[in-house]
Amino acid sequence: MSANSSNLKRISSRPLKRNNYATARARMLEEQIIPRGVTDSQVLAAMGSVPRHLFVEDALQSQAYGDYALPIGSGQTISQPYIVGLMTEALNLRPEHIVLEIGTGSGYQTAVLSQLCAKVYTVERLKPLFVKARRLFDQLHYLNVVCKLDDGTIGWPAYAPFDAIIVTAAGPVLPSALLTQLADPGTMVIPVGNRQSQKLMVVRKCDGVISEEDIEDVRFVRLIGRQGWQP
Ligand code: SAH
Q1: 79 annotated active-site
Q2: Among 80, 126, 138, 172, whose Cα sits 20 to 30 Å from the Cα of 216?
Q3: Structurally, what CATH architecture does the domain formed by 18-218 represent?
Q4: Per-residue pLDDT tens for 54-98?
Q5: Does ligand 1 have an atom closer than 6 angstroms to the CB of 175?
Q6: Minimal CA–CA distance to 146: which of 113, 179, 186, 182?
């Protein structure tokens, strides 16, 4: 844990003033994300603008910009900011891109993606999280986000192919339905491994050829579904 996050934790769990959240966001970029090698200016601008504190419970708002994942209810977590930056940068998004996200969770990653592409289709399997995130997208005017309550391991065939696919829960294997729904060229980012630890994989499809690269050791909550872990 960085000095920054422990400082933030010590501040107490009282909500910060609006300016202080902007300062916390800037420090998050400067102290956690840029030094670890995420430098894409568009990704940094998106993460500098999305109010991460509104995607966590009220009692945790003052810790929202710390260097760690936080609980979001239903046994799930919002990813550490650096991991959101790393995964987003790996997708190489352009303004015209259509993106599929599996694991809406709090909706924070979705909101970051929505700043960088034309449309985000996001799927969540747990109703309380789906309902809360959808309400937040409306309130904050993230209008290019479309949500679905379903098992995302089978993708969203009606809107395929997708220029980019991001999976924010870890599966035992790469779901074949998602690979089929990835455009050519297209990029998918997904953690794959066992329940304790996984590799963050970047999967690229180009001229019909699939290549895979692992870019980080990570620990995500489980991807549960027909092409993931059994409940
Ligand atoms: N990107 C999220 C991280 C949420 S944690 C955020 O920024 O907050 C991962 C989420 O994936 C959890 O909400 C979990 O319920 C969801 N999930 C797990 N398996 C899934 C599946 N098969 N389909 C859709 N969502 C799934």
Answers
A1: yes
A2: 126
A3: 3-Layer(aba) Sandwich (3.40)
A4: 999 999 999 999 999 999 999 999 999 999 999 999 999 999 999
A5: no
A6: 113
